[in-house]
Amino acid sequence: GIDRAAHEGCLSSGGNTIAVLGNGVDITYPGGHERLFERIVSGGGALVSEYPLGTPPRPWRFPERNRIIAALAEKLVVVEAPIKSGAMVTARLALEIGREVWAVPGRISEENCSGSNRLLYDGALALVSVSDFVSLAFGRQLGLFRQNDSRESVPALTEKEQRILAVLKKSGERTVDNLAVEGTMSPADVFSCLATLAAAGRVFPSGPGRWSAVPG
Predict the structure, then answer these.
(1) What is the number of domains present in the chain?
(2) Sign of CA dihedral 191, 197, 202, 205
(3) Residues 192-213: pLDDT tens digits?
């Protein structure tokens, strides 16, 4: 499933990952994950559980452990989820403690996308491009957001980008919905503008779902 894919993707790129279990750490669940768990630990990651050794997996324990996943995550991405799912439980818990939640848009006719689409409707950030996600979500840590040196050649901004930047400079921290209303454009256009402005070092994510202009 998506959990395994996320762990393997992290490991294959040289990262460390943490698996939060709904059972004791001495029990391998789901079956067939022995090698993956070995790679997680040997790669500098960890297997984490609040349950004592020998505790078997039970359906109700997985929603319980999701609050730990939400607390450990700086940003949460929901790739695909129906309304009634563990991913939605985790997303709601993450929002309650101020974590940044992203969701991949899906077909409105697909039940498996109903939860992720609902998150977007409720204000989650839309993940429509991996490059934009990296820039918008992690650009500040990676040093992509910086005040522009006046000696550098700065590409001219479009009229919409200028509007977004003007709103942020005048009004301070704003959500995507705020920017869509105050900038009189669609949320999709706002995301596009933010991606360009962030890459140019003009704006940065200043909180869960919130954006600010770089001073100067």
Answers:
(1) 2
(2) positive
(3) 888 788 878 888 877 767 889 9
Q: Is 148 in a helix, a strand, or coil?
A: coil
Residue 137 lies inside a defined structural domain of this protein: no
* Closest to 82 in 3D by CA, of 63, 109, 59, 61: 109
Shared domain for 121 and 32, answered yes or no, is: yes
Residues 108 and 11 in one domain: yes
* pLDDT per position as a tens digit, 66-116: 999 999 988 899 999 999 999 999 999 988 887 888 899 999 999 999 999
Q: What is the 3-state secondary structure (H, E, C) of 69-132?
A: HHHHCCEEEECCCCCCCHHHHHHHHHHHCCCEEEECCCCCCCHHHHHHHHHHHCCCEECCCHHH
Residue 156, domain CATH: 1.10.10.10
Residue among 140, 24, 13, 28 nearest 74 (CA): 140
Backbone angles phi, psi at 70, to 5 degrees: -60, -40
In whole angstroms, give the CA distance from residue 8 to residue 133. 19
What is d(CA 87, CA 92) in angstroms, rounded to the nearest whole number? 9
What range does the domain containing 197 cover? Answer: 146-213
Q: What angle do CA 17, 125, 140 make, to 5 degrees?
A: 60
Of residues 88, 145, 94, the one with CA closest to residue 117: 88
